[in-house]
């Protein structure tokens, strides 16, 4: 049979063009894509061989092999997987079947156009918008990514159980050729004719170097289930007859077959077989941390969406946790193949301190950051994980109080922000979060939960009292504390500017309203204060002109001058209006606007 020439489908051409001329930053992902295809092909053969063992042709040792050729400037990726027939080569390699890929294409082109336009407008020196680059660099595009690093790609394949082998070749010029060829072993090998920047000395990234390939495999494909092998050649100084090193003799070359990947990801192993130290070591290795985590959680879910998640809370909150530059998010894998470093669409922002990874076969490798937000699988997994985390934290609070308080001191602010966020997002798990809050109070000088507070409230107490201030002492000295303390009521100390926002969002707990000591009229809710309220009103009426005079003197500095029943020994106190912002909130606003 003759060599046949084919035109690429229009979309394929478009994708190829983007590959060659694109502004992709992450060229190295081509290896991940080709290795993942090889692994898929082996999966398929392994599965088929369960019922047709002859398909293995006596070779059941699955392997993916990298063969670089420094001189020829080529890199070959070989697998002994299922292989392809001629029709399959045309269908799978010549066309883009995935609707997802088509969508990416449209988005990509749009992004490219925007970037180009921006560059033109800003003059030659302008750099492409970083976010656009990010978008484009974040997803793989399968087989065609090979063209990001190569001028010509040759694919040789033979389907397991078939006699004919096929050679496919393209220089990405809009056409490809197919011809029959002898292929000894079933499976596929892909040879890349590497471009200038990717081979030889002085290359930007030498894809024929053992070191480069090893590190790329470790980075992207470490947990591929099949061994990824490569020969390593090392030189040792030659020795003479006596066994001493002799510089005059040519060095001795030694070639060893090495397996580059560790194959079993920790998270895929059985929970009961993993020790705490292993979890901790993995955390440090995987997320470049120095200290052990304070918490980890390993879960596997099967059902509508299948996934494994391994989550951690670092021992210390990063200093920039609440700054713009902090990038939250979990690592994303699909069948142990790395997709993305920081997927921030899984967990709500108030859990931004959680690190970890999610591995789901229901996720496609070809997923862009933009599309993630609408991705159903991501949504389902994210919701489940949020639920799990909240439940785990509640357990910690109930069973390991000391540990929880340590957690609270590092990350409590995030949970408070979560409660506050319920103002904007009704889906926020406000009630569960409320149970996780801790506050200092006037009793015992210990952190306490809202439940602990309300459980020990005397019958006569109708509201949950709180006061804001910069520290405990400042609050203790508030004139307003007197009357409340006198009644034996407990007061929550809100020392963090976000505390009050948090309670504002909650409004009440266990049917009890929150009431500030420094806002509006203090209703201590008993008969005594009802009568004194009446008395106060009468006195106010009698002294109307005096109060008016006060207001005139103070002018704009205050809204109103009132008589109050909330003081015991002090003569005056400043309070905020019932509905306006409180002092603490005003301060927080001032801080935010500074
Ligand atoms: P995807 O892997 O997402 O399907 P790719 O562009 O990576 O998309 O690959 C396209 C198709 O080509 C694959 O689905 C598969 O059918 C075929 N293919 C690619 N590489 C191999 C291989 N090494 N062995 C067998 N088939 C392959
Ligand atoms: Mg693929």
What does this structure look like?
ATP binds at residues 33, 37, 79, 84, 92, 99-100, 138-143, 188, 369. Pfam families: HATPase_c_3, HSP90. This protein is of the alpha+beta class and 594 residues long. Helix content is 36%, strand content 20%. It is built from 18 helices and 20 strands. It has a nine-stranded mixed β-sheet with strand order 1-6-5-4-7-3-2-8-9, with helices on one face. Strands 16-15-18-17-20-19 form a six-stranded mixed β-sheet. Strands 10-11-14-12-13 form a five-stranded mixed β-sheet, sandwiched between helices. β5 (165-170) and β6 form a beta hairpin. The longest helix is centred in the middle third of the chain and has 24 residues, at 376-399.
Main features:
20 strands, chaperone, Ribosomal_Su5_D2-typ_SF, 594 residues, 36% helix, Hsp90_N, nine-stranded mixed β-sheet, alpha+beta, 20% strand, binds adenosine-5'-diphosphate, 18 helices, binds magnesium ion, six-stranded mixed β-sheet, ATP hydrolysis activity
Q: Please summarize the sheet with the most strands.
A: 9 strands, mixed
N-to-C CA distance:
77 Å
Spatially, the strands of the biggest sheet line up as: 1-6-5-4-7-3-2-8-9
Query: How many DSSP E strands?
Result: 20
Task: Compute the average pLDDT.
Answer: 84
Radius of gyration: 34 Å
Bound molecules: adenosine-5'-diphosphate, magnesium ion
């Amino acid at each position: 049979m003759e060599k046949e020439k084919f035109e690429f489908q229009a979309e394929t051409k478009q994708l190829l063009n983007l590959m060659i001329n694109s502004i992709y930053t992450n060229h190295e992902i081509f290896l991940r894509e080709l290795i993942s295809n090889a692994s898929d092909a082996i999966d398929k053969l392994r599965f088929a061989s369960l019922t047709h063992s002859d398909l293995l042709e006596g070779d059941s040792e699955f392997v993916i092999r990298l063969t670089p050729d420094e001189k020829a400037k080529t890199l070959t990726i070989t697998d002994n997987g299922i292989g392809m027939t001629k029709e399959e080569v045309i269908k799978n390699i010549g066309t883009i079947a995935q609707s997802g890929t088509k969508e990416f294409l449209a988005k990509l082109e749009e992004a490219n156009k925007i970037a180009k336009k921006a560059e033109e407008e800003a003059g030659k020196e302008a750099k492409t918008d970083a976010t656009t680059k990010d978008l484009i660099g974040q997803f793989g595009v399968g087989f065609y990514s090979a063209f990001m690093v190569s001028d010509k790609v040759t694919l040789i394949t033979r389907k397991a159980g078939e006699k004919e082998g096929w050679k496919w070749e393209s220089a990405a010029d809009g056409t490809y050729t197919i011809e029959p060829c002898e292929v000894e072993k079933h499976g596929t090998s892909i040879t890349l004719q590497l471009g200038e920047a990717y081979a030889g000395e002085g290359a930007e990234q030498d894809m024929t170097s053992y070191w480069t390939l090893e590190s790329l495999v470790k980075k992207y494909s470490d947990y591929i289930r099949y061994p990824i092998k490569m020969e390593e050649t090392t030189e040792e100084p030659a020795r003479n007859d006596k066994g001493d090193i002799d510089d005059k003799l040519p060095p001795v070359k030694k070639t060893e077959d090495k397996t580059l990947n560790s194959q079993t990801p920790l998270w895929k192993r059985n929970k009961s077989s993993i020790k705490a130290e292993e979890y901790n070591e993995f955390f440090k290795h995987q997320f470049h941390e120095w200290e052990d985590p304070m918490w980890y959680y390993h879960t596997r879910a099967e059902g509508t969406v299948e996934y494994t998640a391994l989550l951690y809370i670092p021992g210390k909150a990063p200093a920039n946790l609440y700054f713009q530059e902090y990038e939250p998010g979990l690592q994303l894998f699909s069948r142990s193949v790395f997709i993305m470093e920081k997927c921030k669409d899984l967990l709500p922002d108030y859990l931004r301190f959680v690190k970890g990874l999610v591995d789901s076969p229901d996720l496609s490798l070809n997923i862009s950051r933009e599309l993630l937000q609408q991705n159903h699988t991501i949504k389902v997994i994210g919701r489940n994980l949020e639920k799990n985390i909240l439940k785990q934290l509640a357990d910690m609070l109930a069973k390991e109080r000391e540990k929880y308080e340590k957690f609270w001191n590092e990350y409590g602010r995030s949970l408070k922000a979560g409660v506050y966020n319920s103002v904007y997002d009704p889906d926020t798990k406000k009630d569960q979060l409320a149970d996780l809050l801790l506050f200092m109070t006037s009793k015992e000088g210990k952190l306490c939960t809202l439940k602990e507070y309300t459980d020990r409230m005397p019958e006569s107490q109708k509201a949950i009292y709180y006061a804001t201030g910069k520290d405990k002492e400042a609050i203790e000295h508030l004139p307003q504390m007197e009357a409340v303390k006198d009644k034996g009521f407990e007061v929550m100390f809100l020392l963090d500017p976000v505390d009050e926002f948090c309670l504002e969002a909650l409004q009440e707990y266990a049917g009890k309203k929150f009431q500030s000591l420094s806002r509006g009229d203090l209703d201590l809710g008993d008969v005594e204060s009802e009568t004194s309220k009446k008395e106060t009103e009468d006195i106010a009426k009698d002294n109307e002109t005096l109060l008016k005079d006060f207001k005139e003197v103070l002018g704009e500095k205050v809204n109103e001058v009132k008589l109050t029943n909330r003081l015991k020994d002090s003569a005056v106190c400043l309070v905020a209006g019932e509905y306006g912002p409180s002092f603490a909130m005003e301060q927080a606003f001032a801080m935010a606007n500074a």
